[in-house]
Amino acid sequence: MAHDIPDPAGHHGTSEMVRTATSESRLARYVLIGLALCFMGLFVLMPLAAVFTEAMRNGPGEFLTVLSDPETFSAIRLTLLVAVIAVPLNVVFGVAAAWAIAKFEFKGKAFLTTLIDLPFSVSPVISGLVFILLFGSHSLLGPWLQGNGIQILFAVPGIVLATVFVTFPFVARELIPLMQEQGTSDEEAALSLGASGWQTFWYVTLPNIKWGLLYGVLLCNARAMGEFGAVSVVSGHIRGLTNTMPLQVEILYNEYNFVAAFAVATLLALLALVTLVLKSLLEMKFSEQIAASRRH
Amino acid sequence: MTASTRKRWQFRQPSVIPGFGLALGVTLSWLILIILIPLSGLLWRSSALGWSTFWTLATDERTINALRISFGTAFAAALVNVVFGVILAWVLVRYSFPGKRIIDAMVDLPFALPTAVAGIALTTLYAPNGWIGSLLTPLGIKIAFTPIGIVIALVFVGLPFVVRTVQPIMEEIDKEVEEAAATLGANRFQTISRVLLPGLTPAVLTGFALAFARGVGEYGSVIFIAGNLPYVSEIAPLLIVIRLEEFNYPAATAIAAVMLVISFAMLLVINLIQAWSRRRYGYGA
């Protein structure tokens, strides 16, 4: 088990030698640390390790063959395409929502904030289902869409819509607390010096919120690329056409093609790791400019 | 703009900051188009079923079982997460050990790792021939393809909710409170269980509710490990998908509506906990 290193911040710095009244016995500490590490190992680290070892089960050769498969390639392309459309849409929405909610006082603000958080409490499957009910052949819009040759479900627009629905709150909920904390004095100063509204936004507000915005984009992107339930319902699983990477993982796995499934999963796991590293870096360097970062 | 000036005057407090109309306009139209119309479409479609049809579909035996499994496993997983999430948060806030920063960052892995990837990884570990499953099979314990497997997947998914809700509140605990308790003769266990933990109650409750709500709706990480046996290990979101694949839209709609109403009730409970804790403890977890 790990050695206890005295904390330089002095939180419990002397506990190594003398047990103070506000620290636990060495045994209690070791037991708690041990429990926490075992739990993390069992539930978080081992699954991650399993992804990589299973992908490499038959050596790197087969791993690379799978990744150069045209179907994998089209899944990667679709995943990137969906993220490239969905993330900027949510950035525009998030900034607008945060501007309205953080910079102004108006009636119904708390209710609006709750509505923005709504997608978090909706099952991903339901997030997909609502679009089936809206655009499917049995719906009101269905016959009209068919008559005009507009394909939304089982095509890219449906996948984008479901992804936007699921990732809707990510940027907004990151920016709202941050911009509330920053207040309006910087903007008021800029305006009183003769800046226009847009100038104020570009040269004053945006630099103030850029790290928080980046943080929101990071989380939004991770979810957009990894979304499974909602996309699975609206995609129709057409191979090489409407399969995103997570869907491709499912199909390969259900075909008992485990090495291939885990090979594609490796790419998604790497994306998750890169996201975590960037997230930790942002938290370390710009913690005061990232607001409610520790939740979601 | 000018036509609505008088109305807006009552609606919001005056401010020199420009762009309220534009920002609120973009926000509301996007919110209505992407979230509110689709969701109300679902509720409208389920009300169009008529009450008796809706009731028959919602109380179908397979549906009831699926809902019971979803809520039961999510509840069990949230309980496990409360216990280990609080221990983990405590260890991360109070102690230092090698690799602490990495462990802290890895707590967010379930947020970042796509659920399908988590699902196949957990299944591989807990399957009878997997790393963990093969150790448990000789003992007669079966995890994958049983409801216990569902709980395992939901523990993974819900872990960050508890840790990330409790951790910031733990960081803010004033040390003087502990010192006061110690000088008044409390031993360490009493200080923690009677002084520190009660103050964390709202945060723990919020974390529990968030993990529970997430677990109820979870799909991707569960379907691989669950075995998906109707009446035994079939979760409600999966039953929705099955009904959709059968083109049984009324049944899918009815199950979704039941889940949605319960989720919104959960959201309300979370908001109430936070309002209560702001009054009682001065913070909204």
The major pleated sheet of chain A works out as: none
The CATH architecture assignment of the largest domain in chain A turns out to be Orthogonal Bundle
CATH superfamily (homologous) name of the largest domain in chain A: MetI-like
Distance between the termini of chain B: 39 Å
CATH level 1 name of the largest domain in chain A:
Mainly Alpha
Tell me the span between the first and last alpha carbons of chain A. Answer: 31 Å
Q: Structural class of the helices, strands and pairings of chain A?
A: mainly alpha
Q: What is the number of beta strands of chain A? A: 0
Q: Classify the helix fraction of chain A into a percent range.
A: over 70%
Mean pLDDT across all amino acids of chain A? 88
List its salient traits.
heterodimer, A: 296 residues, mainly alpha, MetI-like fold, 13 helices, B: 285 residues
Outline:
Chain A has 2 domains: 13-53; 57-289, MetI-like (MetI-like fold, Orthogonal Bundle). Chain A has 13 helices and no strands. Chain A has helices spanning 26-55, 59-67, 70-103, 109-117, 124-135, 141-147, 156-167, 169-182, 185-192, 197-226, 229-235, 245-254, 258-285.
